[in-house]
């Protein structure tokens, strides 16, 4: 009987230690510089998006784009896409990804017409 109790205690201790080690490996560093996400690590992008969702939405002097909330990315006219392009082209390269996160959090889809340019600038 004592052997069974000792075995259960040892097994519980090993499970607790393994759990602590696993948690340390899986911890996400909130507050990491999201501008440094290269796109190679999906966890980095996901972490930055989760962190951004807990904070007030950051605007990039682009409040006028809020009127496009909920519009599909393939429904923009070329003139409307040009509004997005003008905002994007005024940004520093390190701001472009944060601007895209801001659009996503505001439920604004980026027009298809400028997505290739975005990808080039976001690298």
What secondary-structure arrangement, pairings included, does this model have?
Elements: H1 2-26, H2 42-53, H3 78-89, H4 96-105, H5 115-122
How would you summarize this macromolecular structure in one to three sentences?
With 123 residues, this protein is mostly helical. The protein contains five helices and no strands.
* Helix/strand structural class: mainly alpha
Tertiary shape: elongated
Cα-to-Cα separation, first versus last residue: 63 Å
Tell me what portion of residues adopts beta-strand conformation: under 5%
Number of helices: 5
Q: On the 0-100 scale, what is the average pLDDT?
A: 81
**Low-confidence segments:** 24-31
Order of helices and strands: HHHHH
* Rg: 22 Å
Biggest beta-sheet profile: none
Number of strands: 0
Helix content: 40-55%
What does this structure look like?
This protein has 123 residues and is mainly α. It is elongated and about 80 Å long. The protein has 5 helices and no strands.
Features:
123 residues; mainly alpha; 5 helices; 54% helix; elongated
């Amino acid at each position: 009987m004592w052997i069974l109790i000792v075995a259960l205690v040892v097994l519980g201790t090993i499970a607790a230690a393994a759990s602590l080690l696993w948690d340390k490996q899986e911890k996400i560093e909130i507050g990491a510089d999201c501008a440094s996400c290269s796109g190679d690590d999906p966890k980095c992008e996901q972490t930055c998006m989760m962190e951004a969702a807990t904070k007030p939405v950051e605007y990039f002097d682009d409040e006028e784009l809020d009127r496009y909330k909920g519009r599909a990315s393939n429904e923009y006219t070329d003139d409307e896409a040009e509004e997005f392009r003008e905002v994007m082209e005024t940004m520093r390269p390190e701001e472009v990804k944060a601007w895209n996160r801001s659009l996503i959090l505001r439920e604004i889809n980026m027009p298809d017409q400028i997505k290739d340019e975005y990808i080039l600038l976001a690298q």
